[in-house]
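lol ok so funny story. i was supposed to be doing the assay writeup but got distracted and ended up predicting the structure for this chain instead. priorities right. anyway since i did it might as well share w the group, maybe its usefull for someone
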Amino acid sequence: MTRNEEVSRPFSSGKTPIQIVGTPAATVTPGDQLERLHILTRADCTTRNRRKAQRLQRTYDDLERRIEQLAAQEELDAIRPDLDGNQIQQLLGIGPGREVGEAYRFLLDLRLDRGPLGEDLAAEALRAWWSARS
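and the output, tada:
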């Protein structure tokens, strides 16, 4: 892959496409070239007006913070419990409904607090949670 091809690949922080202000309407994804894109964009400021340069710097700092926030949110959104809805229904002997969603959220919170448990430990924790609430 050439350098031009690397920079012209579709652009996102993961799943979320990002439109860079001041670029053509096409959305591009530099992938692993994102850091280079930031450096190039900052270096492209040719104004001699100190206020304008500082305003552009602050705006770009804000853009980088938003990209970091999007990437962090995408990471969180990608986390799933150790058991899916079908497994929850089977373990608890219930059908689709609100209780499955509550159990799913319990397992998701457990996963966020303690990390991956594996199916066996997650099933054990789910049964304990279910019997404690009944």
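DSSP finds six helices and no strands in the chain. The radius of gyration is 23 Å.
back to the writeup now i swear
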